[in-house]
Amino acid sequence: MSPVTLAFPADSVNVSLARTVAAAMAARADLTLDRLEDARLAADEAVAQLLASTPPGSSLTCAFEAEPGSLRMSVSGPWSDSAPPSTRTFGWTVLDALCTSVQARLDDGTLTLTLTVEGTVPASA
Question: CATH number of the domain that 111 lies in?
Fold first, then answer.
């Protein structure tokens, strides 16, 4: 399946764009309805994580790759903090519960959150 990339201004009014595309791509991956909703909520939370420390006037990019039974999302944008977001926050706990895997990478002032949602519920959930 073809990947989809979405770029938009870093503003909370645009979070619904990421949620909508995540849901459409999860449907393309034939995820269950529950996992589709998990993907939608994970996209929402990932964008919210970036919005917390993205400089005003910046843009965020969301890349989606769907395969049968799996959706991979990467959300990236400028990050004004010197470290990636803490894994001990409520938001990170939400991401961890919704996704099969969650990774954060900070590289030259750009934070990328990479999320994978698979068709089955993770064993830890």
Answer: 3.30.565.10
Residue in this structure with the two tokens 């645009």, named with its chain if needed: 14
Quickly state the pLDDT bin for 120 (edges 50, 70, 90). low
Q: How many CB atoms lie within 10 A of CB 30?
A: 15
Q: Which amino acid is at 99?
A: C
125 in any annotated domain:
no
With cut-offs at 50, 70 and 90, classify the pLDDT of residue 99. Answer: very high
**For the chain, how many structural domains are there in total?**
1
Distance of CA 116 to the CA centre of its chain: 8
The pTM for the full model equals 0.90
Residues in CB range of 95: below 8 A, 6 or more apart: 42, 45, 46, 49, 102, 113, 115
**Identity of the residue numbered 70:** S
